[in-house]
Amino acid sequence: MPSVVKINVLTVPTEQREVLEQRFASRAGAVESSDGFEWFELLRPVEGTDQYLVYTRWRSEQDFQAWMEGPMKAAHQGGGQGGGGERPKPAASASTVWSFEVVQQASPKKA
User: Model confidence over 13-67: pLDDT tens digits?
Assistant: First the structure.
């Protein structure tokens, strides 16, 4: 069964870029220990767009959904940070998720 790729496309105003990157840098890391998780990358736009790409690869759609309903949901509900304070304003002004199945892949050849 092929891996599943999820790309979250985040529209981030210029003044919020540093905030977004700091939030990802300080995240708890729950995704890395989630069952079925294979890869994560935060991709910063270089030119011509204000959209960041959050790339994750999963063993299956079921593994992704389990993470969405468990660790991801808890993390985005402000579970325990600051104790009862307001949730910080989102750094992104819009978000879209693209879904793909991996049909081909390659890695560097060993010398």
Answer: 999 999 999 988 887 677 888 999 999 999 999 999 999 999 999 999 999 999 9
CA atoms within 13 A on the CB side of 83: 0
In terms of Cα–Cα distance, which of 10, 31, 39 is closest to 75?
A: 31
Q: pTM of the predicted model, to two decimals?
A: 0.82
The span from the first CA to the last CA of the chain, in angstroms, equals 29
Helix (H) or strand (E) holding 63: helix 61-67
Question: Cα angle vertex 20, ends 80, 89, to 5°?
Answer: 55
| Contacts for 21 with CB less than 8 Å, ≥ 6 apart | 42, 44
Interatomic CA distance for residues 93 and 84, integer angstroms: 24
Q: Which candidate, 44, 37, 29, places its Cα nearest to that of 75?
A: 29
Return the amino acid letter for 27.
R
Would you say 6 and 98 are in contact if contact means Cβ atoms under 8 Å apart?
Answer: yes
